[in-house]
Design a protein that fits this description.
Length: about 450
Amino acid sequence: MDDTIVALSTPYGESGIGVIRLSGPTSISLAQKVFKGKRDLREVPSHRAVFGHIINPVTDEPIDECLLLIMRAPHSYTGEDTVEFYVHGSPVLEELLIKFLIELGARLALPGEFTKRAFLNGKLDLSRAEAIIDIIQARSEIGLRSSYVQLQGRLSKEIKPIMERLKDLIAEIEAGIDFPEEVDLSYESIEARISDIVEKLNNLLKGAYFTRLYRKGLSCPIVGRPNVGKSSLLNILLGEERAIVTPIPGTTRDTITESITIDGIPVTLIDTAGIRDTQDLVESIGVNRTVSSIESADIVIWVIDAGEPLKEEDFEIERLTRDKKRIVALNKIDLSNRVLYIDDIKDYGPTVEISCRTGEGIDRLKLKIKELLGSLPSPDFVIPINTRHEALIRRCLDRLSIAMEGIRSRLPIDIIAGEVWESYNILGEITGETASIDIVEEIFSRFCVGK
């Protein structure tokens, strides 16, 4: 990392302020060539802001007022000399300043490259780096809090002691192989220590469900046969006319996805095509997508028309959603000629009467969703485990399970040591200690340019 990188760190477009970030060994000297203030930047202490003007390095002509912040290595985000320009948020100005700096020798940063340099310079480990993109992409306050807990190194503090215990066990096993007369090592003692590590890893996995819930939220398709009020329910939950509503069955032919927040949890509502036998090619594709959305759902809202008796399509939906957390919404209760009541459908699970026309029962429906969620712990008390971490922990557990089987089968100790070594390396991918360059590159490629 002997080059200097530059990028816009604020969103592109007109705004009150724009921040251009420069990081690398020549940051301060490059900044000196495009900035004119009362002091030589080489003499400005670290973490000190100075006022001045952005200048054209060729003509020396000022083009904007600017506040400039210097952060000297290693006390910066990246661990390198870093300069940030705070200019008026003009895209023309921002592009011009970046152009000047590139012509002077800087390079345009790749996505996530500032945070990647922070990782490579030991300013934060890989799990903490991942938390930054999760903070940027947070969909709710509770998701933001969960990501912040990860940024503070909560997961790393749990993983690193486990890795140390694995390393100590490997050292003792190898010492037992080399010096069997001096090291008292039995299969039983190895098994006991691995069992303790397995227990700790399984406890960590408990945080995976809640982390996914806090950050990604619930997937909640609204299903039912055609014309029972699914699109109307989506609109009333959103508080806007998002889906087209007509009395013609089959109006919704594709899934429509929108998000709301219920009790702090993001809920992705999916308006689906009505389930029925159809010869229409487009509608049949929509029905297939409805079935797929049910399969991946966390909670299903099954809408039934109170103005008609249950039909064959309703029974098919009951079968498709039987193994899911399900709320039955009996819609159109405002009809004078209704034929269905709660007692008629109470065997199908939690039920609520609603009217999408009058709004009656909608608050009760939201309460039913909260009840199905159950009592959620605060993110402050949950070890944040994202999808990548969960997969790695499960791989580690698989390796330790193989080691345990080897112990019970009294396989040679060196074979068991190999499995323990592999489990150690897998856990190291969480913090980045043993992660390959391909893994590191893939993670940072998800970031935006300028972070």
